């Protein structure tokens, strides 16, 4: 016979308010709500139409629609929700659809800046034309590599070049010949030596030796020296003109080379320009190429190693690379739609681009061809999808993204420059205009923290798409979810599922939502369950997933994560962990908690004890004192003091010292779901009334004694049930839960069957008064017209004990006062 059927002793019949009726156990029909598929005609999911779009996400889809259509600065999208994968798939699918309606963005190229090579030029071309231009420039260079050497080796060019050289040599030879004749006429010889030219005396065409010259009369020597000096001055004038003549010769050759190059290059350049004359930037660039080709034609004439030395110093690659086109961003791969780019590793360089370097002659060097696009460049004109956690984990990335969005341009940023460690030759590529939508994915905690800590978030991400975790349960929503099952099965190429199995999975979706009136929308978990059930169906040689296959998948998921649960239960059954499931005890109760491991959760009973003595009105939370209790748990314990003060400290201060503790708990304790159990233990310890140990308790409490809803109610009930079932069900065991949690019940079938058979019970409790009556067999009591609690009630026992504590404190205070020296001297 259940304890609740016992009479309530000591309940007065007059002068006191009526006590709340004891709650009846929750009916078995309310412990697990079965699926209702009566309105859906099908034998297997193959008979159902697949579900297009998302289920139960109207609010998020509306936000997504606005974000993709509204072309205003700052209206980027932050997607939040726990079902990240389904949200990501849905968002990307929507973005790809919207991308087909957006104007196709332009291609981007980087080309050499011939005037300032460290500042490459960015040029935009209509979508699809950049690859063609890159190919045209490559063809131009290849053609010139063959044409220019041939022109400069032609007989016509060689003849013109020879004429210039011959004219120079003839002019030089003529002057030296005239000087030679003048010197010979005066018996002076003009000699060419390794050190230059020399004028020396001569006689009959032969040089006069120094000894013979020194033997000549002084007058004759002075006359010869005078003539030599005059001739040397004339020779000096001639020699001084040689560099000018050489410069004139080089200028003539340069003009010849320029005219020759111009005649060869112009047709080639004009051929390219014919296809791009509508693009002013390309026209300007090609004119710069034309001028540079004329100035640097030696690149095409000299050998490769000589040409490299003639090109820009410290620039890697071939000398012809100065005319390359760096195809930076091409829209060819997006099939006529705007790009939708997902960057999984948003480092600074992956986000804003980078300038790569290569080793050359012991240093790192670079050129415009080594500029690489980042995700912002590749997504420009379309959509960029980023994970908020990954973005915030990378140094400088979040700030760089905000900077780019604010100024509307993409600047390639070097992290070495940002932290002041630049030690290589680098470039300053021209920035590129930015026009895109950024979509950030993150859970709610990240979004809330970011909104709180960074006020700029709202400036750049004005729209939030908050995806629901569950939806309201009804016949219509259950039918939608079954169609979702069918969609998942077809998309993942799994076997079809029978009707009974679909009903079981509907019930599991409600269990996952921890609410019998809700259905979980976690498509990831549902897909995993279906995949495992499909595996067991295959092992059994079945063509469809049956209810047994699905139940096995659910059982196996629990079993794989049950090692710790089984060890904890084993400790209880072997009385290593002390948990009583029968009898009664003062100041001791079974509380319930939930542990989560490997994606699975399970309930665990814990013994809570309380001891009391006279004191200053303090309830000590031992868990908090040793820093094992979290703030929510500590808050729950402090509420107990408020309850006691409100119920019993009406005309005298609290004279109580109490201590509460989770016995054999060696880890942290958090949450307030045990506060009602702690209050029962506290009241039991004060009143000296034993509490039933065959009942376990969960639920939080407020200062008015109302029992409030908690989470994990199914796991908590099942955790205590498993211990009781292992020891043997007596018919008196059960769990007290908040009345408001009844709507959340989706218990295992074996628990439901045990309750239906009377072997176990779940009691819905609305107040501490109801719980005390169940746990003690005594009424809690209510103050009568005389302001007193009725005799025999728990609260009367509590109040009497507290008054006794107060009297003890007053007695001790009087004794202290009488023994005080000040009192003896009349100085009190």
Automatic annotation (TrEMBL):
Protein family membership = Belongs to the peptidase S16 family.
What is the top EC class of this enzyme, as a single word? hydrolase
Record region (Disordered): 1-22
Write out the catalytic residues in the record: 673, 716
Per UniProt, residues of the Lon proteolytic domain are: 583-778
UniProt keywords, alphabetically? Coiled coil, Hydrolase, Protease, Serine protease
Q: Name one GO biological process term.
A: protein catabolic process
Q: What is this protein called?
A: endopeptidase La
Gene3D superfamilies for the chain: 1.10.8.60, 3.30.230.10, P-loop containing nucleotide triphosphate hydrolases
Q: Which organism is it from?
A: Polymorphum gilvum (strain LMG 25793 / CGMCC 1.9160 / SL003B-26A1)
- What stretch or stretches form a coiled coil here? 221-248
Q: What is its EC number?
A: 3.4.21.53
Q: Name one GO molecular function term.
A: ATP binding
Catalyzed reactions: Hydrolysis of proteins in presence of ATP
């Amino acid at each position: 016979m259940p304890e609740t059927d016992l009479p309530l002793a000591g309940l007065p019949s007059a002068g006191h308010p009526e006590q709340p009726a004891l709650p009846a156990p929750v009916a078995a029909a309310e412990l697990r709500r079965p699926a209702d598929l009566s309105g859906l005609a099908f034998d297997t999911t193959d008979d159902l139409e697949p579900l297009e779009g998302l289920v139960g996400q109207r609010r998020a889809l509306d936000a997504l629609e606005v974000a993709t259509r509204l072309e205003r600065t700052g209206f980027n999208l932050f997607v939040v929700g726990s079902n990240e994968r389904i949200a990501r798939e849905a968002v990307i699918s929507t973005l790809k659809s919207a991308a087909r309606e957006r104007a196709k963005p332009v291609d981007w190229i980087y080309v050499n800046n011939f005037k300032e090579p460290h500042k490459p030029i960015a040029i935009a071309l209509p979508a699809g034309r950049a690859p063609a231009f890159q190919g045209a420039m490559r063809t131009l260079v290849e053609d010139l590599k063959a044409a220019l050497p041939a022109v400069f080796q032609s007989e016509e060019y060689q003849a013109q070049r020879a004429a210039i050289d011959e004219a120079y040599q003839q002019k030089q030879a003529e002057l030296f010949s005239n000087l030679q004749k003048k010197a010979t006429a005066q018996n002076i010889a003009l000699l060419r030596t390794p050190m230059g030219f020399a004028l020396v005396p001569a006689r009959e065409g032969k040089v006069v030796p120094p000894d013979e010259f020194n033997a000549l009369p002084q007058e004759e020597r002075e006359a010869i020296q005078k003539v030599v000096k005059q001739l040397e001055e004339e020779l000096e004038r001639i020699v001084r003109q040689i560099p000018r003549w050489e410069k004139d010769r080089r200028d003539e050759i340069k003009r010849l080379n320029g005219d020759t190059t111009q005649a060869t290059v112009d047709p080639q350049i004009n051929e390219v320009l014919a296809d791009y004359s509508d693009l002013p930037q390309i026209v300007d660039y090609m004119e710069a190429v034309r001028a540079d080709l004329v100035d640097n034609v030696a690149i095409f004439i000299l050998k490769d190693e000589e040409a490299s030395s003639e090109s820009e110093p410290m620039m890697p690659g071939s000398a012809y690379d100065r005319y390359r086109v760096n195809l930076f961003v091409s829209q060819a791969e997006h099939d006529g739609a705007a790009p939708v780019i997902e960057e999984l590793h948003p480092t600074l360089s992956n986000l804003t681009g980078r300038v790569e370097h290569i080793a050359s002659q012991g240093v790192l060097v670079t050129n415009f061809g080594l500029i690489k696009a980042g995700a912002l460049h590749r997504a420009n004109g379309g959509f960029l999808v980023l994970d908020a956690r990954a973005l915030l984990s990378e140094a400088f990335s979040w700030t760089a993204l905000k900077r780019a969005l604010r100024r509307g341009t993409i600047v390639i940023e070097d992290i070495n420059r940002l932290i002041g460690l630049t030690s290589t030759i680098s470039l300053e590529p021209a920035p590129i205009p930015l026009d895109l939508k950024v979509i950030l994915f993150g859970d709610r905690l990240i979004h809330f923290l970011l909104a709180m800590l960074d006020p700029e978030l709202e400036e750049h991400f004005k729209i939030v798409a908050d995806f629901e975790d569950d939806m309201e349960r009804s016949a219509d929503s259950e039918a939608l979810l079954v169609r979702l099952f069918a969609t998942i099965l077809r998309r993942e190429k799994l076997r079809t599922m029978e009707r009974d199995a679909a009903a079981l999975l509907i019930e599991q979706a409600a269990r996952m939502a921890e609410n019998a009136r809700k259905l979980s929308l976690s498509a990831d978990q549902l897909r995993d369950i279906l995949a495992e059930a499909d595996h067991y169906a295959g092992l059994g040689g079945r063509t469809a997933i049956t209810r047994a296959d699905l139940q096995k998948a659910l059982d196996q998921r629990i079993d794989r994560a049950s090692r710790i649960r089984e060890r904890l239960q084993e400790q209880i059954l072997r009385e290593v962990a002390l948990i009583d499931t029968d009898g009664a005890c003062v100041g001791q109760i079974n509380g319930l908690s939930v542990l989560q491991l490997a994606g699975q959760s399970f309930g665990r009973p814990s013994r809570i004890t309380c001891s009391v003595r006279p004191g200053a009105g303090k309830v000590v939370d031992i868990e908090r004192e040793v820093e094992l209790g979290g703030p929510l748990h500590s808050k729950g314990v402090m509420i107990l003091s408020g309850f006691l003060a409100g119920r019993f400290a009406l005309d005298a201060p609290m004279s109580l010292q109490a201590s509460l503790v989770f016995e054999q708990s060696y880890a942290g304790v958090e949450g307030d779901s045990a506060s009602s159990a702690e209050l029962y233990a506290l009241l039991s310890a004060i009143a000296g009334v034993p509490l039933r140990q065959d009942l376990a308790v969960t639920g939080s409490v407020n200062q008015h004694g109302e029992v409030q809803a908690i989470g994990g109610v199914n796991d908590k009930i099942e955790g205590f049930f498993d211990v009781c079932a292992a020891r043997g069900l007596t018919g008196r065991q059960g769990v007290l839960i908040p009345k408001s949690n009844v709507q959340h019940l989706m218990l295992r079938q074996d628990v439901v069957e045990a309750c239906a058979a009377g072997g176990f019970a779940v009691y819905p409790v609305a107040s501490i008064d109801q719980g005390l009556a169940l746990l003690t067999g005594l009424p809690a009591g209510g103050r009568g017209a005389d302001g007193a609690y009725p005799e025999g009630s728990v609260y009367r026992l509590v109040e009497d004990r507290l008054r006794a504590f107060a009297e003890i404190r007053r007695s001790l205070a009087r004794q202290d006062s009488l023994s005080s020296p000040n009192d003896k001297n009349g100085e009190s």
